[in-house]
Amino acid sequence: MAFWRRLLCSTLFLAPGAALAQPVTGLYLGGAAGLNFHDPNSGNIGGAIGRTLAQSGLSREIRTDFNLGWAGLGSVGWGFGNGLRLEIEGNYRSNELDRYTIAGYRLPRAKGSADTYGIMANAYYDFDLSSYGISSSALMPYIGVGVGYAWTSHRGLSGSIDATAPAGLADRVVSRVNSELQSRFLANLTAEQRAQLPANAIPQINLNTSDLNARAQVRSDDTDGDFAYQAMAGLAFPVRAVPGLAVTAEYRFFGTLSNRLSTTVTASAAGRSIDRTYDIKYDNFNHSAMLGLRYALWTPPAPVAALAPTPAPTQNAART
């Protein structure tokens, strides 16, 4: 009888682990938070400023680099009991601006943030490693993919720099400013007044540009949405004390198609400036390391092993 009591106690002790080892079945809730790395963004400046930079032998690239940020998400899904799960997820990511770079020059006075928020439809598959000697009541790896729609916002993104203008660029900036002055001045005159106007009456800037201080500033404060996609890989650690609850640790790659965000570029010298706004295409790629919780609202009970019938006591034959 002592043997059967020990077997019964062992079965009762292992029953919670057996329940946890089963794949997620039915409705579940999830949430996670962690660190987010936003890949640098880059685009090209067009228009008059872009042409001026190109003619001066400078790069037309405008680039944003971000500090390490954070990401958070919540989800609701359904497990089919065979390792497959489908879910709907809402997410949010935020990274503070580290620096703007324009024409190869870093703009040190940088501020603002890039935020992304979206809704995704995900599919996951949980792997049962019990055939490899690893109990799924202790560890269950999973992978997943998702598609959806996300909005990217530049919130007060800006950067500026004051420096001596590069050789050749100052001349072109002054020439461009003079052209702007002439256009604005003549726009206020009639055709007859223009015909009678002396050549020296048009306002011009005449400067020694060999040591001209210039200022460059970039500003972006806009939102755009587009198709989003992601891939996930992680580990789930079931919590024995709470059937249905698991701690998750995962890596996520999240990206969207290029967003067109309004960006204003200002170049100034000698108290005059060129100010232009462009819709620049920005990439949006993110890498996240996250910790979370997942709770299955209905965990099927563990199958109870049938106990073997107690053998009948041996009858000793009566002695005569």
Descriptive overview:
It is a single chain. 17% of the residues lie in helices and 55% in strands. With 320 residues, it is of the alpha+beta class. It has a domain at 26-162 and 221-258 and 283-296: Beta Barrel (Porin), CATH 2.40.160. It has an eight-stranded antiparallel beta barrel. Residues 7-20 have low confidence and may be disordered.
Give the tags:
alpha+beta, Porin, eight-stranded antiparallel β-barrel, 4 helices
Task: Sum up the overall morphology in one term.
Answer: rod-shaped
Strand order of the largest sheet: 1-4-5-7-8-9-10-11
Going by CATH, the architecture of the domain at 26-162 and 221-258 and 283-296 would be Beta Barrel
Radius of gyration from CA coordinates: 34 Å
In the CATH scheme, the class of the domain at 26-162 and 221-258 and 283-296 would be Mainly Beta
Low-confidence stretches: 7-20
Order of helices and strands: HEEHEEEEEEHHEEE
What is the CATH topology of the domain at 26-162 and 221-258 and 283-296?
Answer: Porin
Terminal residue distance? 31 Å
Which structural category do the helix and sheet elements fall into? alpha+beta
Total of DSSP H or I helical runs spanning 4+ residues:
4
Strand content: over 45%
Keywords: Signal
Organism: Roseomonas mucosa
Protein name: OMPC
Signal peptide: 1-21
